[in-house]
Amino acid sequence: MGHDRPGRALAALSVLPALAVAGWLLAGLPLLLLGHFAPLPAALLGLPAAALLCWAGTRRLGKLVEATPWQVAGVVAVAAASGVFNTVLHSEQVAVRRDPATYALYASWIADHGSLPIPRQAGAFGGFDPWLIFAGVGFFDVPGGVVPQFMPGAPLLFAVGNWFGAPFAMPAVLGALAVLTLAGVVARLAGARWAVVAAVALAVSLPILYTSRTTFSEIPSLILVFGGLSLVCDALARPGWWRGLPAGLVFGLAVLVRIDGLRDVLPVLAFAGLLIAMRRSARNKGALGPGLLAGLVAGGGLGLLGGYVLARPYLGYLAGSIRPLLLICAGVLVLTAAGTAAAPLLARLRPPRWLPMAGAGLTVLLMAGLYARPWVQTVTRVPTHEGDQRTFTMIEAIQRANGMAPDGTRLYFEYSLHWAVWYVGLPAVVLATIAAALLVRRLLRDGTPFEWLLPLAVVGWTTVTTLLRPEITPDHPWAARRLVPVVIPGLILLATYALAWLRDQAGRRGTRVRRWGTALAVVLMLVPPAVTSIGTAFTPIERGEAAAVEAMCGRIPENASVLFVERVTGDRFMQAVRGTCGRPAAAVKRVLTDVAPEDQVRRLIERVRGTGRVPVVLAADEDQVAPYGRATQIMALVARQDERSLIEAPNGTWTLRMNVWMAVSE
């Protein structure tokens, strides 16, 4: 038994992150819904829930992975190095310019207050007024207050960092766990010798570095999706009716982290139906189906409940894409039920002999078509609502900054596979295509290797749908986040399978050919993503924001009611003033300009004064606050920000300046 211990250790270590995350979310969501998400109750419920899931998901693992102690140590070392590196170079995004600051402020609020919505505190301004705005970028008005726009799963995780006094360390910890998680899937499906290669390839990829340094939801989603794949592999290797339940829960809770998780786990629904249909012909494997389906429905149901209660305006904003996705889910459910019922009849059918090769050929043609899109298609969108118009304006601004002709209708989605090539390298994409074609051919021919069916379905489905419609502002590295949950780790997983296959083929030509061929392939896997990342890997962005906000808070009187009279400053700092500084905050409505009308500001100042509080006016420039009192600059931050590149990989950062001026109306 001793020689199995390294493999068992790697198998267990690589699923613990997903199981622990799922257990914490299972406990954290009810506490947040009840308004009692605080360190003590979260620890009393979350730690036992995580421990129970970890026990259930790792007991009686059996011999799943053949690994050496050095391979296990290598994977752990790469994951740990990733965590340390990204902790040291973490970002500090608390000024709401894009999503990470909203996530950070969301996590900070629930860590300190344990409940939603965020109170408006309208009484501090003399009551509600049509010229007062309490919501803003990243935050929606709801009855009873203001709510952040995102799903609650990721903030429930990030809040742990706030409790430990290290709010910007949690993303790096999760990033390290993501590296460990992918290595576990690779060890199971391609062999432990490739786990270290996969861990390094993921850790050095720019989008992983980017999303492991600040509060994004993509890394937790990666942990849940690929952790779920490992759990299914384990369950197939050692079947038991209950083993599908933890895997289903882990998959389903991906919806609580990102609403896009609905799309990512759709193949799991069909796979569970297939397992149920196989209960007669393959009793052991088929026994997993009911548990997998039950866990998936329970986890996904909790995710949708959390979104409906805590992020309903956000889901309404995304209704145009969520409704079709829900219809697809319903269609898959109906087809799965029909296929399960018709399984005995379908089992008698014999596919034509040409189908396996046709499937492999179509796989290659699909990837070739995606790569050729820039030469045959230009994806555009004419603005039809306010959100589209903001994107239009932003793209034109980015094009001018890049020295390009302005055309705000361009979305650049046709370059999506080229984005993947930037970040994992052309050799990895080619290897992944070869692997996908081989696996499609084998699965269509004789249904083996069966353990690859679900991973190939999840990676293939999500990769193709994501690359066809990334649905994100297309500047990089920002747009790279869309590739993080499945596309990049999925390509790496498939590429390692191709490496294993090529190594076996080369072994027929002799040991030397195999050794040198393997070394060359590994170099080709690791060097391109490292070269792409090198331009930004050692430059942290938006550092100093947290300290600047704390200093700003110290300059605002304790009994102040803060009025933002200029658009950009209000968008960036209203929730920071409300949450971090603990001062009531509101923006004054603007009409056709970025600055509020002076007569209305003066009227609102008098209303604040009537409450006995101190009226404070904030804006970006001195002359915007000077009419209301002596102007004082309370923030003058110079930092680095993301580059905004449209048609080539980002290789640097830009300067970011943020100024805040204050006038205290005596």
From TrEMBL:
Transmembrane segments: 12-34, 70-89, 131-151, 163-186, 192-210, 290-310, 322-347, 354-372, 420-440, 452-470, 482-501, 513-531
Keywords: Membrane, Transmembrane, Transmembrane helix
Residues annotated as domain Glycosyltransferase RgtA/B/C/D-like: 170-297
Domain of life: Bacteria
Cited InterPro entries: RgtA/B/C-like (IPR038731)
Pfam families: PMT_2 (PF13231)
Name of the molecule in the record: Glycosyltransferase RgtA/B/C/D-like domain-containing protein
Species this protein is from: Nonomuraea diastatica
